[in-house]
Design brief:
Layout (H helix, E strand, L loop, with lengths): L5 H17 L5 E6 L4 H12 L8 E4 L8 H14 L11 H7 L17 H13 L10 E5 L10 H7 L7 E8 L10 E2 L2 E2 L1 E4 L5 H12 L8 H15 L8 H15 L2 H17 L3 H20 L5 H18 L3 H17 L3 H17 L3 H15 L4 H4 L4 H15 L2 H15 L3 H8 L9 H13 L1
Parallel strand pairs: 1-4, 1-7, 2-3, 3-4
Antiparallel strand pairs: 5-6
Organism: Chryseobacterium rhizosphaerae
InterPro entries: TPR-like_helical_dom_sf
Protein name: Tetratricopeptide repeat protein
Length: 463
Amino acid sequence: METSSIAQEYYKLKELWSVAEKKESWKLAVWVAQYPDVEMIDKFMQIEQSPVGESNDIFFRFEAEYHGDQQLFEEQLWNEFVTWFTPHPKKDKDLHRALWENNIIKEAFVPDDSLLPSAVSLFSELERFKRSITDQGEHFYFCLYFPLVAHAKQNIAHWFQQVIETVPDSLRLVTMDLAEERRIKLQGKKDNEALYHYIYPKLKMAEAIKNEMYKASDNYNTVDADARFRKQVIVVMDSTTQKIKNRTEVEVKRLITITEEIGSVSSKIAGLLVASQAFFAVQNTKKSEEYTDKALEESSKAMVDDDATGYPVWKSCMLLKAALLYGNKNRDAALLVYQELSEKASKRQDVYYIMETNRLIAHIYYEKNNLQKAFESILFSLAAGAYLDISVRRQSTFLHAAFMGLYLGKQIKTKEEVNEIELQLADWLGDDWESLLAQAGVDSASLKMEQSVWKDQLSKLKN
């Protein structure tokens, strides 16, 4: 029996990094990660970036994404760097102020805004910032972390190749690559030392997560029906990965039997929703639709009875139903489902779902070549999203709605009206809204939903 735990896998990463950081020659370290391990490695890097990190080095994370334009990318990196030192109205979020007030830096640091926004400028200013650190007793690096962008069209390896020779000795770059789809395979030497260091973690994250889930489900309690229900959910979802002698149908029946034993409305609806997702995962859309309809029926009853579990599950079922209809190329039926969901969300002032459903409605109208209806729907989506906190707007599908609103506006509105849209986006997203949309990777190709959007909806449900 596997005994892997999340803690054990974390310490494997810690040991690998400890070995890597002791090597003096490299300028770029690449975690060559398996798909299931990506999130764990990213979390490890986040921990090292935080005050509880154990490395002597100091880590910085850059969110800008490389889209093939070196100059634009370096401008975005520079602008991101500058924002680290911009005063924040909330004291607990003002990194620079915290460093200064806790005597971590010798003096207040102000980026030199006379410099051109380039990698050379960024590196030189980071060097200057590093010199301002109070404790210089032990040798340490500034590590600049560039997270994995799994579906990026352009390969950031091109940029690394361009700048690697200019990285100062006090700085290091770190990124991640997928073992299954290697993109970063660089070679190069400086003073007879390798510039690149590849780290090959061998983790068992799937087993570790499963073990943690079983622990949370009280693995030794075979009498309690709730515990057996939680375990059976894991068994059902595990069954969907079996290619030969698939047992999903058998395990779903067991799950439904346990929900009937429990007898509560919430467990019954949850079981039906899990069943619908499981059958979708094994591409049995007929069964998936059947269980989705049953879950909708039960959650609708719960809503009528004012059961607290009704609406949250009902809206998840509606998203799943619309996704199934869209996947079967029944756009008109999917549109009706999204519209009904939008109406219910409006009555409950559920602004996130108002935003999301109307964004998807706009996509369908766009595919039907009804630009006016698409534009009206996307404006409704944006108006709802405007009620969300700006931090949510800046990192959610609000960005896709914003791009779509601007794109459609340019198709059917006057130049003056488009200018009004742009001013509104600056108000909703900040003055850097253009670079923010560019970093989010939204473009005209993303206006058609195709498979990616509705599959994304399904993945959200599973999480």
